[in-house]
Amino acid sequence: MKPRTKPAGPQTHAPEPLGVPTRRAAIKLLDAVLRRGESLEAALPAATRMVHGPDRGLAHAIAAETLRRLPDLDAAIDGATERALPDDAKARTALRIALVQALVLGTPPHAAISTVLPLVDGGPRKLVHGVFGTLMRANILLPEIPALPPLVEARWETAWGEAMVEAAAEAIAAPPPLDITLADPGSTEEWRVRLGGESLAPGHLRLVDHDPVPDMAGYTDGAWWVQDLAATIPARMLGRGDGVALDLCAAPGGKTMQLAAAGWQTVAIDSSQGRIKRLRENLFRTRLKAEVVRADVLLWSPEEPADAILIDAPCSATGIFRRHPDVLHRVRPSVVAELAELQTRILNRAADWVKPGGTMVFATCSLEPDEGERQLERFLVARRDFAVEPVDPASLPTGVAAAEGGYVRTLPTMLADKGRLDGFFAVKLRRT
Ligand SMILES: C[S@@+](CC[C@H](N)C(=O)[O-])C[C@H]1O[C@@H](n2cnc3c(N)ncnc32)[C@H](O)[C@@H]1O
User: Fold this and answer.
1) CATH number for the domain that contains residue 47
2) Residue 412's domain spans which residues?
3) For residue 363, is it within any domain?
Protein backbone atom coordinates (compact mmCIF):
# COMPACT_ATOMS: atom_id res chain seq x y z
CA MET A 1 0.00 0.00 0.00
CA LYS A 2 1.30 3.45 -0.97
CA PRO A 3 2.17 5.73 1.99
CA ARG A 4 -0.37 8.49 2.50
CA THR A 5 0.91 11.90 1.46
CA LYS A 6 -0.54 15.34 1.92
CA PRO A 7 -2.73 16.26 -1.08
CA ALA A 8 -0.82 18.51 -3.48
CA GLY A 9 -2.13 22.07 -3.24
CA PRO A 10 -1.02 25.37 -4.70
CA GLN A 11 2.54 26.21 -3.59
CA THR A 12 2.66 29.15 -1.24
CA HIS A 13 5.77 31.20 -0.51
CA ALA A 14 6.05 33.82 2.20
CA PRO A 15 6.03 37.17 0.41
CA GLU A 16 9.44 38.84 0.26
CA PRO A 17 9.93 41.93 2.42
CA LEU A 18 9.10 45.14 0.60
CA GLY A 19 11.95 46.47 -1.53
CA VAL A 20 13.91 43.22 -1.77
CA PRO A 21 12.92 42.37 -5.41
CA THR A 22 14.12 45.83 -6.45
CA ARG A 23 17.56 45.21 -4.90
CA ARG A 24 17.67 41.75 -6.50
CA ALA A 25 17.00 43.42 -9.87
CA ALA A 26 19.83 45.91 -9.20
CA ILE A 27 22.20 43.01 -8.52
CA LYS A 28 21.10 41.31 -11.75
CA LEU A 29 21.86 44.53 -13.64
CA LEU A 30 25.32 44.73 -12.09
CA ASP A 31 25.99 41.10 -12.94
CA ALA A 32 24.97 41.70 -16.56
CA VAL A 33 27.43 44.60 -16.86
CA LEU A 34 30.34 43.38 -14.76
CA ARG A 35 30.28 39.66 -15.53
CA ARG A 36 28.75 39.45 -18.98
CA GLY A 37 29.83 42.80 -20.45
CA GLU A 38 26.25 43.80 -21.41
CA SER A 39 25.08 47.41 -21.43
CA LEU A 40 22.72 48.55 -18.65
CA GLU A 41 20.17 49.53 -21.28
CA ALA A 42 20.24 46.09 -22.91
CA ALA A 43 20.08 44.27 -19.57
CA LEU A 44 17.18 46.32 -18.17
CA PRO A 45 14.13 44.42 -19.55
CA ALA A 46 15.25 40.96 -18.35
CA ALA A 47 16.76 42.07 -15.04
CA THR A 48 13.75 44.11 -13.97
CA ARG A 49 11.07 41.67 -15.16
CA MET A 50 9.81 41.11 -11.61
CA VAL A 51 9.61 44.78 -10.57
CA HIS A 52 7.19 47.40 -11.76
CA GLY A 53 6.58 51.14 -11.99
CA PRO A 54 8.96 53.40 -10.06
CA ASP A 55 10.79 50.35 -8.61
CA ARG A 56 12.23 49.73 -12.07
CA GLY A 57 13.68 53.22 -12.05
CA LEU A 58 15.04 52.63 -8.55
CA ALA A 59 16.72 49.34 -9.54
CA HIS A 60 18.32 51.15 -12.49
CA ALA A 61 19.41 54.08 -10.30
CA ILE A 62 21.01 51.76 -7.71
CA ALA A 63 22.94 49.90 -10.43
CA ALA A 64 23.95 53.08 -12.32
CA GLU A 65 25.11 54.88 -9.17
CA THR A 66 27.06 51.79 -8.09
CA LEU A 67 28.84 51.81 -11.47
CA ARG A 68 29.55 55.55 -11.17
CA ARG A 69 31.19 55.05 -7.77
CA LEU A 70 32.51 51.48 -8.02
CA PRO A 71 36.23 52.11 -7.26
CA ASP A 72 35.33 54.30 -4.25
CA LEU A 73 32.77 51.81 -2.91
CA ASP A 74 35.30 48.99 -3.24
CA ALA A 75 37.98 51.04 -1.48
CA ALA A 76 35.58 51.58 1.45
CA ILE A 77 34.73 47.85 1.57
CA ASP A 78 38.39 46.83 1.38
CA GLY A 79 39.22 49.24 4.19
CA ALA A 80 36.76 47.46 6.47
CA THR A 81 37.49 43.80 5.67
CA GLU A 82 40.46 41.84 6.98
CA ARG A 83 40.89 39.82 3.79
CA ALA A 84 39.96 41.33 0.43
CA LEU A 85 36.70 39.88 -0.90
CA PRO A 86 36.87 38.54 -4.46
CA ASP A 87 35.52 41.02 -7.04
CA ASP A 88 32.51 38.84 -7.79
CA ALA A 89 31.81 37.70 -4.20
CA LYS A 90 28.14 37.89 -3.18
CA ALA A 91 29.15 39.83 -0.07
CA ARG A 92 30.94 42.53 -2.11
CA THR A 93 27.98 42.98 -4.44
CA ALA A 94 25.54 43.21 -1.53
CA LEU A 95 27.76 45.72 0.28
CA ARG A 96 28.19 47.82 -2.88
CA ILE A 97 24.46 48.29 -3.29
CA ALA A 98 23.76 48.79 0.42
CA LEU A 99 26.50 51.44 0.62
CA VAL A 100 25.53 53.26 -2.55
CA GLN A 101 22.01 53.61 -1.25
CA ALA A 102 23.10 54.91 2.15
CA LEU A 103 25.94 57.15 0.91
CA VAL A 104 24.73 58.41 -2.47
CA LEU A 105 20.99 57.87 -2.88
CA GLY A 106 19.99 59.07 0.59
CA THR A 107 18.30 55.81 1.69
CA PRO A 108 18.21 55.55 5.51
CA PRO A 109 20.97 53.06 6.50
CA HIS A 110 18.55 50.64 8.22
CA ALA A 111 16.45 50.44 5.04
CA ALA A 112 19.54 50.13 2.82
CA ILE A 113 20.81 47.10 4.76
CA SER A 114 17.51 45.42 5.62
CA THR A 115 16.53 45.19 1.93
CA VAL A 116 19.89 43.68 1.02
CA LEU A 117 20.41 41.12 3.79
CA PRO A 118 17.65 38.73 2.56
CA LEU A 119 19.65 38.45 -0.67
CA VAL A 120 22.58 36.89 1.19
CA ASP A 121 20.50 34.63 3.44
CA GLY A 122 22.23 31.29 3.95
CA GLY A 123 25.49 32.98 2.90
CA PRO A 124 27.71 35.82 4.12
CA ARG A 125 24.87 37.63 5.93
CA LYS A 126 26.87 38.20 9.11
CA LEU A 127 29.86 39.58 7.22
CA VAL A 128 27.74 41.98 5.18
CA HIS A 129 25.88 43.19 8.24
CA GLY A 130 29.13 43.64 10.18
CA VAL A 131 31.06 45.53 7.47
CA PHE A 132 28.09 47.79 6.71
CA GLY A 133 27.65 48.57 10.42
CA THR A 134 31.36 49.33 10.86
CA LEU A 135 31.33 51.77 7.92
CA MET A 136 28.14 53.49 9.07
CA ARG A 137 29.44 53.91 12.61
CA ALA A 138 32.65 55.41 11.17
CA ASN A 139 30.45 57.94 9.27
CA ILE A 140 32.40 57.33 6.08
CA LEU A 141 31.84 59.58 3.10
CA LEU A 142 32.76 58.85 -0.50
CA PRO A 143 35.29 61.28 -2.05
CA GLU A 144 33.68 64.33 -3.65
CA ILE A 145 35.43 63.58 -6.96
CA PRO A 146 34.96 59.90 -7.83
CA ALA A 147 37.87 57.69 -8.87
CA LEU A 148 37.83 56.32 -12.42
CA PRO A 149 38.52 52.60 -12.92
CA PRO A 150 42.35 52.35 -13.10
CA LEU A 151 42.42 50.87 -16.63
CA VAL A 152 40.23 53.67 -18.00
CA GLU A 153 42.27 56.29 -16.20
CA ALA A 154 45.52 54.95 -17.68
CA ARG A 155 44.07 54.71 -21.21
CA TRP A 156 42.61 58.23 -21.18
CA GLU A 157 45.67 59.77 -19.58
CA THR A 158 47.81 58.39 -22.41
CA ALA A 159 45.35 59.64 -25.04
CA TRP A 160 44.29 63.01 -23.62
CA GLY A 161 46.42 63.93 -20.61
CA GLU A 162 45.90 64.50 -16.93
CA ALA A 163 43.49 67.44 -17.17
CA MET A 164 41.05 65.35 -19.21
CA VAL A 165 41.19 62.52 -16.65
CA GLU A 166 40.45 64.98 -13.85
CA ALA A 167 37.54 66.45 -15.83
CA ALA A 168 36.17 62.98 -16.59
CA ALA A 169 36.33 62.03 -12.90
CA GLU A 170 34.43 65.19 -11.96
CA ALA A 171 31.95 64.54 -14.75
CA ILE A 172 31.14 61.00 -13.58
CA ALA A 173 29.90 62.28 -10.22
CA ALA A 174 26.43 63.06 -11.55
CA PRO A 175 24.29 62.59 -14.65
CA PRO A 176 24.67 65.45 -17.15
CA PRO A 177 22.18 68.30 -17.67
CA LEU A 178 19.36 67.83 -20.16
CA ASP A 179 20.10 69.03 -23.70
CA ILE A 180 17.28 69.44 -26.18
CA THR A 181 17.28 70.13 -29.92
CA LEU A 182 14.52 72.28 -31.40
CA ALA A 183 13.03 71.33 -34.75
CA ASP A 184 13.02 75.03 -35.66
CA PRO A 185 16.27 76.76 -34.66
CA GLY A 186 14.52 80.07 -35.38
CA SER A 187 12.38 79.48 -32.28
CA THR A 188 15.33 79.09 -29.87
CA GLU A 189 14.70 82.31 -27.93
CA GLU A 190 10.96 81.66 -27.71
CA TRP A 191 11.60 78.20 -26.16
CA ARG A 192 14.36 79.52 -23.91
CA VAL A 193 11.81 81.88 -22.40
CA ARG A 194 9.21 79.10 -22.05
CA LEU A 195 11.46 76.33 -20.71
CA GLY A 196 14.32 78.28 -19.14
CA GLY A 197 17.91 77.10 -19.41
CA GLU A 198 20.68 78.31 -21.65
CA SER A 199 21.26 78.06 -25.38
CA LEU A 200 24.75 77.11 -26.53
CA ALA A 201 23.95 76.86 -30.25
CA PRO A 202 21.03 77.72 -32.53
CA GLY A 203 18.27 75.21 -31.90
CA HIS A 204 19.76 74.09 -28.58
CA LEU A 205 18.72 74.48 -24.93
CA ARG A 206 20.48 73.12 -21.85
CA LEU A 207 18.34 72.67 -18.74
CA VAL A 208 19.47 71.75 -15.24
CA ASP A 209 16.15 71.76 -13.35
CA HIS A 210 13.21 70.49 -15.30
CA ASP A 211 10.02 68.44 -15.11
CA PRO A 212 9.97 64.86 -16.39
CA VAL A 213 10.57 65.10 -20.16
CA PRO A 214 7.08 63.93 -21.31
CA ASP A 215 5.47 66.62 -19.11
CA MET A 216 7.52 69.49 -20.51
CA ALA A 217 5.89 72.01 -22.87
CA GLY A 218 6.51 71.22 -26.51
CA TYR A 219 7.53 67.57 -26.09
CA THR A 220 4.22 65.93 -27.03
CA ASP A 221 3.75 68.46 -29.84
CA GLY A 222 7.13 67.45 -31.25
CA ALA A 223 8.74 70.90 -31.04
CA TRP A 224 11.95 69.32 -29.74
CA TRP A 225 13.73 66.11 -28.80
CA VAL A 226 16.35 65.12 -26.22
CA GLN A 227 19.87 65.07 -27.69
CA ASP A 228 23.20 65.78 -26.08
CA LEU A 229 24.81 68.94 -27.48
CA ALA A 230 27.97 67.11 -28.64
CA ALA A 231 25.76 64.61 -30.49
CA THR A 232 24.24 67.42 -32.55
CA ILE A 233 27.62 68.39 -34.06
CA PRO A 234 27.81 65.81 -36.91
CA ALA A 235 24.49 66.89 -38.47
CA ARG A 236 25.33 70.59 -37.87
CA MET A 237 28.51 70.00 -39.92
CA LEU A 238 26.43 68.97 -42.96
CA GLY A 239 24.59 72.31 -42.87
CA ARG A 240 21.32 73.19 -44.62
CA GLY A 241 19.88 70.47 -46.82
CA ASP A 242 20.60 70.45 -50.50
CA GLY A 243 19.65 67.09 -51.94
CA VAL A 244 19.59 63.54 -50.63
CA ALA A 245 21.25 62.62 -47.34
CA LEU A 246 21.75 59.03 -46.20
CA ASP A 247 21.77 58.69 -42.43
CA LEU A 248 23.57 55.39 -41.80
CA CYS A 249 23.17 53.81 -38.36
CA ALA A 250 20.35 56.24 -37.73
CA ALA A 251 18.21 54.95 -34.88
CA PRO A 252 16.68 56.22 -32.62
CA GLY A 253 16.88 59.17 -34.98
CA GLY A 254 18.37 62.22 -33.25
CA LYS A 255 20.44 63.03 -36.32
CA THR A 256 17.75 61.92 -38.77
CA MET A 257 15.43 64.55 -37.25
CA GLN A 258 18.17 67.20 -37.46
CA LEU A 259 18.80 66.39 -41.14
CA ALA A 260 15.09 66.37 -41.99
CA ALA A 261 14.55 69.64 -40.10
CA ALA A 262 17.50 71.17 -42.00
CA GLY A 263 15.78 70.41 -45.31
CA TRP A 264 17.64 67.29 -46.42
CA GLN A 265 15.68 64.62 -48.28
CA THR A 266 16.66 62.05 -45.67
CA VAL A 267 16.92 58.27 -45.87
CA ALA A 268 17.50 56.70 -42.43
CA ILE A 269 19.00 53.21 -42.30
CA ASP A 270 19.50 51.05 -39.22
CA SER A 271 19.63 47.31 -38.59
CA SER A 272 17.90 47.22 -35.19
CA GLN A 273 14.16 46.54 -35.22
CA GLY A 274 13.61 47.92 -31.72
CA ARG A 275 15.57 51.09 -32.38
CA ILE A 276 13.89 51.62 -35.78
CA LYS A 277 10.55 51.51 -33.97
CA ARG A 278 11.73 54.34 -31.71
CA LEU A 279 12.98 56.25 -34.75
CA ARG A 280 9.55 56.00 -36.39
CA GLU A 281 7.87 57.15 -33.16
CA ASN A 282 10.24 60.12 -32.99
CA LEU A 283 9.50 61.11 -36.59
CA PHE A 284 5.77 60.74 -35.95
CA ARG A 285 5.91 62.92 -32.83
CA THR A 286 7.99 65.64 -34.49
CA ARG A 287 6.08 65.40 -37.81
CA LEU A 288 9.41 65.33 -39.64
CA LYS A 289 9.73 63.29 -42.82
CA ALA A 290 12.34 60.67 -43.68
CA GLU A 291 12.38 57.41 -45.58
CA VAL A 292 13.11 54.66 -43.05
CA VAL A 293 14.92 51.48 -44.07
CA ARG A 294 15.67 48.57 -41.77
CA ALA A 295 18.87 47.05 -43.14
CA ASP A 296 22.44 46.09 -42.35
CA VAL A 297 24.56 48.74 -44.06
CA LEU A 298 27.20 46.09 -44.74
CA LEU A 299 24.70 44.33 -47.01
CA TRP A 300 22.43 47.18 -48.21
CA SER A 301 23.34 49.70 -50.87
CA PRO A 302 21.47 52.72 -52.27
CA GLU A 303 20.10 52.81 -55.81
CA GLU A 304 21.96 56.06 -56.51
CA PRO A 305 24.90 57.92 -54.98
CA ALA A 306 23.92 60.56 -52.41
CA ASP A 307 24.77 64.26 -51.99
CA ALA A 308 25.60 63.71 -48.34
CA ILE A 309 26.14 60.79 -45.99
CA LEU A 310 26.18 60.83 -42.21
CA ILE A 311 27.70 57.81 -40.47
CA ASP A 312 27.06 57.77 -36.74
CA ALA A 313 28.91 54.52 -36.44
CA PRO A 314 28.37 51.83 -33.81
CA CYS A 315 31.13 52.41 -31.25
CA SER A 316 32.26 51.79 -27.68
CA ALA A 317 30.17 54.80 -26.52
CA THR A 318 32.83 55.69 -23.97
CA GLY A 319 32.16 59.38 -24.77
CA ILE A 320 28.72 59.14 -23.15
CA PHE A 321 29.96 57.67 -19.86
CA ARG A 322 28.09 60.32 -17.85
CA ARG A 323 24.72 58.89 -18.83
CA HIS A 324 25.96 55.33 -19.37
CA PRO A 325 28.51 54.64 -16.60
CA ASP A 326 28.48 50.93 -17.54
CA VAL A 327 30.88 51.70 -20.44
CA LEU A 328 33.62 52.44 -17.91
CA HIS A 329 33.54 48.84 -16.71
CA ARG A 330 32.74 46.76 -19.75
CA VAL A 331 34.65 48.37 -22.65
CA ARG A 332 38.03 46.65 -22.91
CA PRO A 333 40.69 47.32 -25.61
CA SER A 334 39.54 44.18 -27.47
CA VAL A 335 35.99 45.62 -27.68
CA VAL A 336 37.35 48.90 -29.05
CA ALA A 337 39.47 47.03 -31.63
CA GLU A 338 36.47 44.99 -32.83
CA LEU A 339 34.27 48.07 -33.16
CA ALA A 340 37.01 50.05 -34.93
CA GLU A 341 37.22 47.29 -37.50
CA LEU A 342 33.46 47.39 -38.05
CA GLN A 343 33.62 51.20 -38.42
CA THR A 344 36.38 50.87 -41.06
CA ARG A 345 34.21 48.47 -43.06
CA ILE A 346 31.15 50.75 -42.86
CA LEU A 347 33.19 53.85 -43.73
CA ASN A 348 34.90 52.28 -46.76
CA ARG A 349 31.63 50.90 -48.07
CA ALA A 350 29.72 54.17 -47.61
CA ALA A 351 32.50 56.16 -49.30
CA ASP A 352 31.49 54.61 -52.64
CA TRP A 353 27.94 55.96 -52.20
CA VAL A 354 28.99 59.64 -52.08
CA LYS A 355 28.51 61.62 -55.34
CA PRO A 356 31.71 63.23 -56.67
CA GLY A 357 31.76 66.63 -54.96
CA GLY A 358 29.46 65.31 -52.23
CA THR A 359 30.21 65.17 -48.52
CA MET A 360 30.34 62.55 -45.80
CA VAL A 361 30.47 63.02 -42.03
CA PHE A 362 31.91 60.22 -39.93
CA ALA A 363 31.19 60.37 -36.20
CA THR A 364 31.51 58.28 -33.04
CA CYS A 365 30.52 59.02 -29.44
CA SER A 366 33.83 57.61 -28.28
CA LEU A 367 36.84 58.82 -26.32
CA GLU A 368 39.07 56.21 -27.93
CA PRO A 369 41.38 57.60 -30.66
CA ASP A 370 41.12 54.25 -32.51
CA GLU A 371 37.47 55.08 -33.16
CA GLY A 372 38.22 58.67 -34.22
CA GLU A 373 41.58 60.21 -35.07
CA ARG A 374 43.25 56.88 -36.03
CA GLN A 375 40.20 55.86 -38.06
CA LEU A 376 40.47 59.10 -40.06
CA GLU A 377 44.21 58.64 -40.67
CA ARG A 378 43.63 55.14 -42.03
CA PHE A 379 40.76 56.30 -44.23
CA LEU A 380 42.72 59.16 -45.80
CA VAL A 381 45.52 56.75 -46.72
CA ALA A 382 43.09 54.22 -48.20
CA ARG A 383 40.88 56.73 -50.05
CA ARG A 384 42.84 59.34 -51.97
CA ASP A 385 39.56 60.55 -53.50
CA PHE A 386 38.50 62.11 -50.17
CA ALA A 387 39.83 65.16 -48.32
CA VAL A 388 38.91 66.71 -44.98
CA GLU A 389 36.47 69.59 -45.53
CA PRO A 390 36.96 72.62 -43.26
CA VAL A 391 34.12 73.08 -40.78
CA ASP A 392 32.19 76.34 -40.76
CA PRO A 393 33.00 77.67 -37.24
CA ALA A 394 29.50 79.18 -37.07
CA SER A 395 28.00 75.69 -37.27
CA LEU A 396 29.67 74.64 -33.99
CA PRO A 397 28.35 75.23 -30.46
CA THR A 398 29.81 77.92 -28.20
CA GLY A 399 33.27 76.89 -26.96
CA VAL A 400 33.84 74.21 -29.63
CA ALA A 401 36.36 74.63 -32.47
CA ALA A 402 37.81 72.29 -35.06
CA ALA A 403 41.18 70.69 -34.27
CA GLU A 404 44.24 71.35 -36.45
CA GLY A 405 43.45 68.31 -38.58
CA GLY A 406 40.08 69.84 -39.50
CA TYR A 407 37.99 67.36 -37.47
CA VAL A 408 36.05 68.11 -34.28
CA ARG A 409 37.00 66.39 -31.04
CA THR A 410 34.93 67.11 -27.95
CA LEU A 411 36.17 66.21 -24.47
CA PRO A 412 34.68 66.47 -20.96
CA THR A 413 37.12 69.32 -20.29
CA MET A 414 35.01 71.52 -22.61
CA LEU A 415 32.26 73.85 -21.33
CA ALA A 416 33.42 72.98 -17.77
CA ASP A 417 31.41 75.86 -16.27
CA LYS A 418 28.28 75.06 -18.28
CA GLY A 419 27.71 71.38 -17.55
CA ARG A 420 30.48 69.98 -19.83
CA LEU A 421 30.32 68.06 -23.10
CA ASP A 422 30.21 64.38 -23.97
CA GLY A 423 33.18 62.91 -25.82
CA PHE A 424 32.61 62.88 -29.58
CA PHE A 425 34.62 62.67 -32.78
CA ALA A 426 33.31 64.04 -36.07
CA VAL A 427 34.94 64.78 -39.40
CA LYS A 428 33.50 66.11 -42.65
CA LEU A 429 35.02 64.67 -45.82
CA ARG A 430 34.51 65.76 -49.42
CA ARG A 431 34.79 63.42 -52.36
CA THR A 432 37.10 65.16 -54.80
C1 LIG B 1 25.44 55.43 -32.25
S2 LIG B 1 23.96 54.56 -32.56
C3 LIG B 1 23.11 55.66 -33.63
C4 LIG B 1 22.47 56.87 -32.98
C5 LIG B 1 21.66 57.67 -33.98
N6 LIG B 1 22.44 58.08 -35.12
C7 LIG B 1 21.04 58.91 -33.38
O8 LIG B 1 21.52 60.01 -33.58
O9 LIG B 1 20.01 58.77 -32.69
C10 LIG B 1 24.52 53.35 -33.70
C11 LIG B 1 23.43 52.60 -34.44
O12 LIG B 1 24.05 51.74 -35.36
C13 LIG B 1 23.17 50.67 -35.62
N14 LIG B 1 23.96 49.63 -36.32
C15 LIG B 1 24.96 48.89 -35.82
N16 LIG B 1 25.46 48.08 -36.80
C17 LIG B 1 24.74 48.34 -37.92
C18 LIG B 1 24.78 47.83 -39.25
N19 LIG B 1 25.65 46.90 -39.61
N20 LIG B 1 23.89 48.31 -40.14
C21 LIG B 1 22.98 49.24 -39.78
N22 LIG B 1 22.91 49.78 -38.54
C23 LIG B 1 23.78 49.33 -37.63
C24 LIG B 1 22.67 50.33 -34.23
O25 LIG B 1 21.44 49.64 -34.31
C26 LIG B 1 22.54 51.70 -33.59
O27 LIG B 1 21.22 52.15 -33.69
Assistant:
1) 1.10.940.10
2) 229-431
3) yes
